[in-house]
Amino acid sequence: MAYHAILFDIDNTLINSANLIAETLRTAAIKVENVEAPLEKYRQLIGQPGDKILRSFGVKDPETVLRYYMKDFTSNMHKLVYFPGIESLFEKLKHVDLKIGVVTSKNRFQFDQETKYFPMIANTKIVTTSDLTAKPKPSGDPLIYTIKTNGLDPSTTLYVGDSVYDMRAANEAKIDFAAAGWGALPDEKFENAKYLLKKPEDLLKLVSL
Known about the structure:
Layout: E1 5-8, H1 18-33, H2 39-45, H3 50-56, H4 62-75, H5 86-93, E2 99-103, H6 108-114, H7 119-122, E3 126-128, H8 141-149, E4 157-161, H9 164-173, E5 176-180, E6 195-197
Parallel strand pairs: 1-2, 1-4, 2-3, 4-5, 5-6
Helix pairs in contact: 1-2, 1-4, 3-4, 8-9
């Protein structure tokens, strides 16, 4: 399949961040509202917007919790790193005639804060954050929005992500999905994925170099 556009999720697809997000969300929920839930439950829900995750655990004021979370998370962003092979992958994709973008569950403020440490992502020409559509992932709306506003062809657009929420969004948008196995939970089921990738460079086999 010759793809003309590749769209990426960010957390635990490009950046090894899901564990820090889960830990910080959990800590914020406990400190602000004394709402406790197992860390592994938080980790399983990473890929959805933070307010939705918090509401699922009974948080009544997710906006306040998220403000606390963002302050704590921002102070620890220096701990985040790209997954091995991601920077090399992007460098090689520069030499391929295709469009590259990111579609994330982060809102624009969160995206701008985090990508201060990751200029490769910040400088991506196509960026869709969760506040650009009424429904976030796992709805297909963010991908559909991205396709329409950037003149992409769904039949030649691939979405790469680490969670079933990313897969469901791609399926609803009727575009191919590649599971980023390097960031996915070990027991994640990707029955509707077009590709199961073990490492970032596997993606290069799907494009013409």
